[in-house]
Amino acid sequence: MAEEIQDAVDAPANWSKQWQRLRRRRWWLAMPLFTVWAVVWSVSWFLPAVYRSETLILVEQQKVPEQYVVSNVTADLQERLQSMTQQMMSRTRLLRIMDEFQLYPELRSRRTPDEWVERMRQDIQMELVQAPNRRGDLAAFKIAYLCRNARLAQQVASRLSSLFIEENLKSRQQQSQETTNFLQSQLGEARQSLSEQEMRVKEFKSRYLGELPGQVQSNMQILGGLQSQLQQEMEALGHAKQQSVYLESLLGQWRSAQGGAVLAPSAVDQELESQRAQLADLSAHYTERHPDIRKLQEAIIRTEALKQRLRPAGELGGGGAVRSSPGTPLAELESQLKANRVEIANREKSVKGGERQIQGYQSRLNTAPLREQQLADLTRDYDQSRKNYESLLAKLDDSSMATNLEKRQQGEQFRVLDPPNLPQKPYSPQRLRLSLIGLLAGLVLGVGAMAGAEAVDDRIYCRADLKEVSDAPVLSEIPPLLTVAEVARKKRQSIWQWVAMAAMVAATAAGFGITYWLG
Questions:
Q1: CB of 237 within 8 A of CB of 342?
Q2: Is residue 144 within a helix (H) or strand (E), and if so which, with residue range?
Q3: pLDDT computed for residue 55 by the predictor
Q4: 109 — phi, psi (to 5°)?
């Protein structure tokens, strides 16, 4: 508690002591402060003024909704800006701009063109403006140019902004057209591949016609019909062979007949009964217009006629071998036997043909699984080529629409939102900031000088200083004894000091005012 009271008592004394030191060393603080500020302020006015003209370019999205036309320029905007910036900062374009506006005349006589280009690159500034509430998306960007001539800075900034807009339109149209051209070339290759696949499928179907998977059912139906026909032909062949045996037997009996003997008609009756039984069997399955039924009916008629013509052997002439003459039963039997042999040959030929056809269709059915696998492979390649072709065709249509959109300047484009301004104050040097820096540096230097002067001064100015040196008590104080002349001189010095101090303050304030208004 006693220490806190003592600190409270010593606090005003310490402030008083510091104030006394400040009054004694005020010129050690004021002179460096004013001198450093004055030097920095003066030098700032000798530095060349550089003006900055800035333009704001808005990134406008395409005017047609993307749900109708999707852009085929998918490069990121920042990447395209970097690419365009590299193109704009190329040596050729910058030299062309410098020749157009006669920039950097002070460098042309003593520097190389590469140094001119590097200097202009340093004077061009770009700043990206992010879209609010959409992180990573650009809403606009700024282009600025630094020059010692304000009007020239505005003109160059305007030229740079127009070049960026033109380059963006040209770049987007070129990229869109290249995408469309690429899709056209890919579509041509896909069309050729699809045609080749179609030709392969067509050749395969033509080569293996009848063995294709889609013809299995019809082949089975045809095979069933052929088997039924073969069965009929084989049955007809059997009947024809039986007929042949009957005719040969009858012809043998007829030829062996001698004199007045009568040829027994039992064989004819048996054949007639057999033919009628066969006719009844066929009539149960087929109509009367069926060729086998008609042929069998004609055979029955001939057999019945033959039976009626059978006469006693004595009518053939006396005592000799049986002769064959036209119109006789013998001639008719021989004719029937000959026709029967032809029928047997035809039936056998038909049976062999039917067997060959059945074998062919059975071979088709046996190879159907293999052809199905081969056709599936070809069809799979064809379907893949067709899907690829249709996909490329749809993409080409979309890309062509996007290219037309870019050519009509309805896609994403740059628009000048704020045209380049005519700067009224220089961008650099920033004289107000330099003045503040000079003032701060002078203050630091003044405080340091004041502290140094106080540290090397070993004189005692007050009772507190004496207490720091010695513990002896103070018995009395001797006041200063000044003459009238000394008092007057001291008064004049004080007035001049205050005038000088006021002048420095006024000069500092005036310097800051001029700097603020004139830049």
A1: no
A2: strand 138-147
A3: 93
A4: -90, -20
Cis preceding-peptide flag for 480 (omega within 30 of 0): no
- Within 8 A by CB and 6+ apart from 173, the residues are 403, 406, 407
Q: Structure tokens of 495?
A: 């007035």
All residues at 6 or more sequence positions from 210 whose CB lies less than 8 Å from its CB, including other chains = 219, 364
Q: Are 465 and 71 in contact (CB under 8 A)?
A: no
Q: What is the rounded distance in angstroms from the CA atom of residue 242 to the CA atom of residue 256?
A: 21
Cα–Cα dist 376/201, whole Å: 10
Establish whether the linkage from the previous residue to 429 is cis, with ω within 30° of 0: yes
Expressed in angstroms, the distance from the first to the final Cα of the chain is: 58
Tokens representing 319? 């005592």
* 467, two tokens: 């207490």
Q: Phi first, then psi: what are they for 416, rounded to 5°?
A: -70, 115
Identity of the residue numbered 299: A
Burial of 455 from C-beta contacts in 10 A (0-12 / 13-18 / 19+)? exposed
What are 59's two structure tokens? Answer: 């990134």
Nearest alpha-carbon partner for 335 in 302, 363, 372? 302
Task: Give how far Cα 184 sits from Cα of 188, 190, 428, 481, Å.
Answer: 6, 10, 55, 111
Residue 121: closest CA among 80, 81, 67, 85: 85
* φ, ψ of residue 463 in degrees (nearest 5): -65, -35
Count the neighbouring beta carbons within 10 Å of the beta carbon of residue 286: 13
User: Which strand (E) or helix (H) includes residue 404?
Assistant: helix 329-407
Alpha helices in 53-149 (DSSP H): 77-88, 91-101, 105-108, 113-123
Residue type, position 239, single letter: H
Q: Are 508 and 439 in contact (CB under 8 A)?
A: yes
In whole angstroms, what is the distance from residue 244 CA to residue 271 CA? Answer: 11
> Could you give the CA distance from residue 268 to residue 3 in angstroms, rounded to a whole number?
167
What are 5's two structure tokens?
């009271």
pLDDT tens across 88-97, in order?
Answer: 888 888 999 9
Long-range contacts of 115-118 (CB under 8 A, 24+ apart): 117/91
* Residues 129, 144: Cα–Cα separation, whole Å: 14
Amino acid at 350: S
* Three-state secondary structure string covering 284-337: CCCCCCCHHHHHHHHHHHHHHHHHHHCCEHHHHCCCCCCCCCCCCHHHHHHHHH
* Residue 369 CB burial class (10 angstroms; 0-12, 13-18, ≥19): exposed
What average pLDDT does range 259-281 have in this prediction? 64
pLDDT in tens, 423-479: 888 888 888 888 889 889 988 988 888 878 777 766 666 666 666 666 767 666 777
Q: Is the pLDDT of residue 212 over 90?
A: no
Rg (CA), the chain: 64
Distance of CA 217 to the CA centre of its chain: 47
